[in-house]
Design a protein that fits this description.
The chain is α+β, with helices and mostly antiparallel strands. It has two domains: 128 residues, Aminopeptidase; 131 residues, Aminopeptidase, CATH 3.40.630.30. The chain is built from ten helices and twelve strands. Strands 1-2-3-4-5-12-6-11-10-9-8-7 form a twelve-stranded mixed beta sheet, with helices on both faces. The longest helix has 16 residues. The radius of gyration is 20 Å and the shape is globular.
């Protein structure tokens, strides 16, 4: 039989998992585990789990591009009761309270996380377990989950709407960084410029950024953060201020949504509850409000 050498990161993750919940098996997910089993579990709620499912489909269960470690929680019969990504961003899909508690205790071991994101009620319960020994909260945000499915109304086409190329990187990066700063209070160009540039370039190379550029100016931008057959998750939707009055944002978003629905069952996005302009844009484009999410940005690097 082949011999696998466990990485230091995986070994540490496994040690943390052993400390969590003795009545449950909590373990890191690696390339040796059944990816199909995990995706099937997440597929039971495809819109709510689109970020984790998209990362696994793009990168596999174990990759530096996941920016964290995937964990599974199993009951005494070995059945999955939860899947979580713990790292830079923490996402949790727990079907039982015991699994949620186990993931919260596990996340307490991560001392340099940036945020926790998930359905409002689940994250509030998660936070009750996490807060006593986890990182301190820095910013709380409520997000509105919007979703669109067929049928979709047609708008006047935008012929110049296209996938971005690396030539557009200098236009896309500062806009995306400014949006991240507005949401979280952290500018990735200040905290991790090289890594941020790499991630932006990689997303463009994978055809995941759509832009409308006129006379060298970025008019519209949208990022495809996760892409699965059941749901596409869109983020970073930007419309240049003066162009909003000309309907560019609505036409571009509608056209992009129709394109994405040609290969996926639904398109979803999260919008900050205070961003009334963005909410109005998604509603005009035919999106429906499906739920509420909480994002908790954390103080990083605490001992």
């Amino acid at each position: 039989m082949p011999q696998f050498k466990e990485s230091k990161k995986t070994a540490a993750a496994r040690a943390h998992a052993r400390e969590v919940e003795p009545s449950f098996l909590v373990h890191p997910l690696t390339e040796r585990h059944d990816e199909c089993e995990v995706l099937a579990f997440l597929l039971e709620r495809p819109v709510r789990t689109v970020v984790m499912a998209g990362l696994i489909r793009d990168n596999g269960l174990e990759s530096p591009f996941n920016r964290g470690t995937f964990y599974a929680c199993r009951n005494s019969e070995g059945r999955l009761e939860g899947v979580a990504l713990v790292g830079h961003a923490t996402f949790v899909e727990a079907r039982t309270e015991s699994a949620l508690k186990a993931f919260a205790r596990l996340a307490q071991k991560e001392r340099d996380a940036h945020m926790i994101l998930g359905e409002q009620e689940m994250i509030r319960r998660f936070w009750n377990y996490y807060a006593s020994a986890g990182q301190t909260s820095r910013v709380f945000c409520r997000e509105l989950l919007f979703e669109q499915r067929w049928p979709v109304g047609a708008c006047e086409p935008v012929e110049a709407l296209r996938r971005a190329t690396l030539d557009d990187l200098s236009l896309v990066m500062p806009v995306h960084a400014a949006m991240a700063f507005e949401e979280s209070g952290v500018n990735p160009l200040d905290s991790d410029a090289a890594g941020f540039r790499l991630r932006c370039a990689r997303r463009i190379e994978h055809g995941r950024v759509w832009v409308l550029v006129e006379q060298g100016e970025l008019i519209f931008k949208a990022d495809i953060a996760s892409d699965t057959p059941d749901c596409v998750y869109v983020e970073g939707v930007y419309v240049e201020h003066a162009s909003r009055q000309r309907g560019h944002g609505l036409r571009c978003l509608s056209q992009l949504s129709r394109t994405l629905l040609g290969r996926s069952s639904s398109v979803c996005a999260l919008v900050n509850e205070q961003n009334l302009v963005a909410q109005a844009l998604f509603l005009k484009a035919g999106y429906k409000l499906r739920g509420y999410y909480d994002t908790i940005f954390l103080e990083r690097g605490e001992a």
